[in-house]
Amino acid sequence: MDSPSSDEGTELTWLNVALAFGFIAFNVIFSYVFDLGVGVSLLVAATRCVVQLAIVGTLLQKVFETDNPWAVAGIAFLLNLMGTFEIVVNKSKKRHQNMACHFFPSVLFSLLASTIPISIIGVRFAMSVTKFWEPAQYIPVVGMLCGSTINGVVVSITYILKEMQENRDRVEMYLAFGASRSEACKPILVDALRIALTPTINQMSVLGIISIPGMMTGAILGGSSVERAAKLQMIIMFFLSASTALASICSAGYTISVVVDREHRIRQDRIYSKSLYNFSFSLTSWGLSAMVGLSHKVRNVIRNAMRSLYKALVGGFAAKDNAVRGAREESGGLLERGLSYEDSPPLN
User: Which pTM does this prediction carry?
Assistant: First the structure.
């Protein structure tokens, strides 16, 4: 028998979200006290989480009500597009030349080529949903696939570009001995794909015994039976592994084709490490600068308060210790003999 749904039990409001936000506030205070330097990042990430989920919740509610396949397709494309922006602008520390003509389209193609076919085939056959475009079934699957493939694409691209810069001599040696660019870069490609797939493999290894994943937990809290939630989690994990592998292969292969040209030359001039935050985010940069300044002031206030509290505690203990010493000197009669506590002979 299925457990009661969350709608019948507990209705969550923004007050519940605000109470849960207190855990983020604890992390921020912890960061400021120990000078970790991640307080602003935590606040920005938490704010983005709230805003993005609120927008997605409102948008998906309308899509679920319409049950339009074109609306579902638009949401799927939007998720992949936003995932591409996240990789290009935020996640990837290294990128190759010409974002508009090479990097951005290659990442978008990698995400679309992996998430769309796997989600369609998986939802239709593995999940036995006749109308695979059903919003309540298809959109969550595409969202999870996008989130998983982002990490794989970022890791594979960053590793390849880093190796091309740091181990250029080894690749050039292979090219000088007559190897093609695919043969010379094969060891780097293999290592990049292995690193990209390692988190997914580790995650599948610990499911069930060590950890209960979020998708299974959400299904149980939503009223689904434990058996069905477990089977759904198995299916989703197999989707994630295939999607991550396919997206990593596409992005890594295209990256190698850009960095090593058709003449089998390594083009380090096409590799960039600079951030793209400043290309259209001046207002965001101003807001972040203001938040950083405010965070420094808050940190100084917290530090001063902690120091004052520490001094007060130390002063209180010192005064108590002096009082105890004075009492012991008076009780021992040392003061009458003109001796202090330090001048008293040691006890055998």
Answer: 0.70
